[in-house]
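Sequence in, structure out. Go.
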Amino acid sequence: MLIDNTVIYEENYLFQINQKGRPFFYFFDWDERTYAINMEFQHFHPFYEMCIFLGPHAQHLINGVRHDLRCCDIVAIRPALLHKTAYPQGAPCKRLIINFALPALPAELGGCMQTIYQIFEKEVPIYRFEGHTKQTVFEKLNDIYYLSKSPNELSDLAAHNKFIEFLSLIYLYRDKNVYEDRTVLDNTSAKIYGITAHIHTHYMDELSLSGLSKEFFISSCYLSHQFKRITGFTLTDYISMTRVRNAQNLLLSTNMPVTDIALSCGFKSFSQFNRTFRRFVEMPPSKFRKDS
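Output:
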């Protein structure tokens, strides 16, 4: 099936090179998602992810900020970035998810890859192309699909080269990115999402209902009620969950002592951190680090 006369799609089709967790791997997943299986809270990966949205419309949350998606938008998600796609009610939405990790290259080429990785570092790392540019970019993904259907001793290498071309074209055509966030929010929703964004950038600081209500000029009672209505979480739980997610990332990606992680993520003591972590992850932080 050809989506939007641009992207090849086959439902429930997977293509993989090596296993996740290896220094070098690819995982391509063509599939559908529905409102019923929306994630409760934003999550992160220790690897890179590309989300190619192939449905009519949805929203994507990045560090607490909601962004509008439409067909053929590309979301470039760097490791440890908190995010989730919010699919609308109704018919399932098609999408292609690509997870990958690439080993470090020799110094002569490493700088080139660091340049390409800049596409993941934008404040809003979403790309929307039109016309010939769009066809040229997605042609590389279609080539990977065809290679996966006719495997040989060189198909994995060819798929890798095509994917590097795909990333390179996004970087080279970055000035032709026409993405505009047209999410329409009422004043209250806009203020609440402004507060969620603030939480994601200041989770390590002292945060409270009274403090945020003063900073954003909204009554504590109204903020508490509207925050729960719009996000599905109490303000306290949202702050705690954001801190826990960032602590999980540090537990996986660093050798920092657990106590130092607790304090760096905004918890006042190790006992508070341990209690909160157990509540949301259902295991103590030390076990999470060991098992993961």
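Check: The mean pLDDT is 95. The first helix runs from residue 107 to 116.
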